[in-house]
Design goal:
By secondary structure, the protein is mainly α. The protein has a domain at 92-124. It has 4 helices and 2 strands, in the order H-H-H-E-E-H. It has helices at residues 8-21, 26-37, 70-77, 120-124, and strands spanning 92-95, 102-105. A two-stranded antiparallel sheet has the order 1-2. A hairpin with a 6-residue loop joins strand 1 (92-95) and strand 2. It starts with 7 loop residues before the first helix and ends with a helix. 2% of the residues are buried.
Length: 128
């Protein structure tokens, strides 16, 4: 369909024709909008409902905007500073079981007991 609308009269005729297709009074408009909002959901063969066919009722509920004021309350209630993630620890004096070198290390890296500790140099040497 080729619409060659070069004159304003042709454009006005097209607008008038399209307006004739629209509902003429407000009650017809209300009926159309109600029909759009109250579309029944159709079940597919698998029993699931189509997402396109249902009305989102959450948009009209007051709960939709309740969470927006939470940030203001959270800022007022956040009086305590956050706790540090790393717990403080004390270094432990240990000696290497192979070479006898003495070091201070974090207790988390030790095996079951401190007498089984090997320093980095001894643990990387082959055959030790």
């Amino acid at each position: 369909m080729d619409l060659n609308l070069s004159s304003p009269e042709q454009i006005q005729q097209l607008i008038n024709a399209l307006q004739a297709l629209l509902p003429k009074n407000e009650t017809d408009n209300k009926k159309l909008s109600k029909n759009k909002n109250n579309i029944k959901t159709k079940k597919t063969k698998s029993g699931k409902k189509n997402d396109e066919d249902h009305e989102n009722k959450f948009l009209s509920m007051p709960e939709m905007n309740m969470h927006k004021s939470d940030t203001k309350i959270d800022k007022k209630l956040a009086q305590q500073p956050p706790t540090p993630r790393n717990r403080p620890f004390k270094y432990i004096d240990v000696s290497c079981r192979t070479c006898g070198k003495k070091e201070k290390v974090n207790p988390k890296i030790l095996p079951e007991s401190a007498d089984r500790y090997k320093c980095n140099n001894c643990s990387t040497n082959a055959g030790a």
